[in-house]
């Protein structure tokens, strides 16, 4: 079991680390096993689960778990049923530097082109290498298929963890908290979460939920998760420590925004986590990821056409 999970983690891509409720849960415990790829935001399409037709006059009169059930259902539905396509920029700042990628979502998965490094345009040699990489992907569908299979595996894990959240945690209202900036004018429900001591993880992956606590901001009308903060408040062993040992003190934060057509997408994700991987190496993950310049696409493109669209766009010159 531990060996199969280790292989699973090593084969994952950043597309599997969804910037969503799932991402915060998975990244804390598996971040060192995932490589940065061009499809970080592939699966952040959000479908809306309508609010109940009759809402109580006092939003806090219902159990806080009720909100989490709806939030989790929104996230699972989003993962299983993408319904829109976007183009946007992804900026990643970590130990490897500061990189910006032009990203296009296709019906087959997201593709991206590196356009800036450490605040500067690519050199001719760097741009040529990036073009060669993308052209090779067009001519080799099998390589792209490998990415998609890995992404689907990540989605399955995401659905598993999200579905466990309502019972894995205990939730309490924290009224009086400042409302976060958001283009919607709906009231925000703020809840704090902490592991449920009577809940037993059904799998090694689910152990990730037992060391995380934090706070969520939820749109009271759409049941969208707008912001989530998390802290690793105690050390956690995943797979009896053979997969990972997560040190206490790690922090993660996620911000999301609503676009036209009720689409929710992340705008910023920050993680600062220390993990000992496979009982061998201690790794520190300190990364900030931002998404911006969102443009809706008129329809679904094949991944080859999405790459051609990227290649047809002149890269920044300054």
What do you see in this structure?
By secondary structure, the chain is α+β, with helices and mostly antiparallel strands. It has one domain (2-311). It is built from 6 helices and 13 strands. Strands 1, 2, 3, 4, 5, 6, 7, 8, 9, 10, 11, 12 and 13 form a 13-stranded antiparallel beta sheet that branches. Helix 2 packs across helix 5, helix 3 packs antiparallel against helix 5 and helix 4 packs antiparallel against helix 6 (303-311). The longest helix is centred in the middle third of the chain and has 28 residues, at 141-168. Mean pLDDT is 78; it is low at 1-57.
Distinct helical segment count: 6
Helix fraction? 25-40%
Measured by DSSP, the beta-strand proportion falls in 25-35%
Which whole number gives the mean pLDDT?
78
Taking pLDDT < 50 over at least 5 consecutive residues as the criterion, the unreliable ranges are: 1-57
Name the descriptors.
318 residues, alpha+beta, 13-stranded antiparallel beta sheet, 13 strands, globular, disordered N terminus
Indicate the topology:
Blueprint: H1 2-11, H2 21-30, H3 64-80, E1 86-94, E2 97-105, E3 110-117, E4 120-121, H4 124-139, H5 141-168, E5 169-173, E6 188-195, E7 212-219, E8 225-232, E9 236-238, E10 244-246, E11 251-259, E12 263-277, E13 281-296, H6 303-311
Antiparallel strand pairs: 1-2, 1-13, 2-3, 3-4, 5-6, 6-7, 7-8, 8-11, 9-10, 10-12, 11-12, 12-13
What's the short version?
The chain is of the alpha+beta class and 318 residues long.
């Amino acid at each position: 079991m531990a060996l199969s999970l280790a292989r699973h983690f090593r084969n994952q891509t950043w597309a599997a680390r969804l910037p969503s409720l799932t991402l915060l849960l998975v990244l804390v415990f598996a971040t060192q096993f995932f490589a940065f790829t061009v499809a970080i935001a592939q699966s952040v399409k959000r479908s809306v689960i309508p609010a109940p037709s009759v809402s109580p006059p006092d939003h806090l009169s219902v159990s806080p778990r009720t909100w989490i059930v709806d939030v989790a259902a929104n996230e699972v539905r989003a993962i299983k049923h993408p319904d829109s396509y976007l183009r946007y920029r992804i900026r990643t700042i970590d130990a490897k530097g500061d990189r910006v990628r032009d990203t296009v979502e296709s019906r087959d998965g997201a593709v991206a082109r590196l356009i800036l490094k450490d605040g500067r345009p690519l050199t001719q040699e760097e741009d040529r290498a990036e073009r060669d990489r993308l052209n090779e992907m067009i001519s080799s569908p099998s390589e792209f298929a490998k990415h998609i299979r890995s992404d689907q595996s990540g989605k399955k894990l995401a659905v598993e963890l999200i579905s466990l959240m309502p019972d894995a945690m205990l939730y309490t209202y924290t009224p009086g908290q400042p409302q976060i900036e958001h283009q919607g004018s709906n009231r925000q429900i703020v809840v704090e979460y902490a592991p449920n001591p009577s809940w037993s993880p059904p799998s090694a992956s689910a152990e990730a939920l037992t060391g995380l606590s934090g706070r969520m901001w939820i749109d009271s009308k759409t049941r969208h998760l707008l912001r989530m903060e998390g802290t690793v408040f105690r050390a956690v062993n995943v797979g009896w420590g053979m997969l990972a040992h997560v040190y206490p003190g790690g922090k993660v934060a996620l911000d999301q925004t609503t676009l036209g057509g009720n689409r929710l997408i992340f705008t910023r994700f920050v993680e600062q986590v220390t993990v000992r991987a496979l009982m061998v190496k201690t790794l520190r993950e300190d990364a900030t990821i931002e998404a911006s310049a969102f443009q809706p696409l008129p329809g679904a493109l094949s991944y080859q056409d999405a790459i051609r669209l990227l290649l047809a766009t002149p890269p920044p010159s300054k």
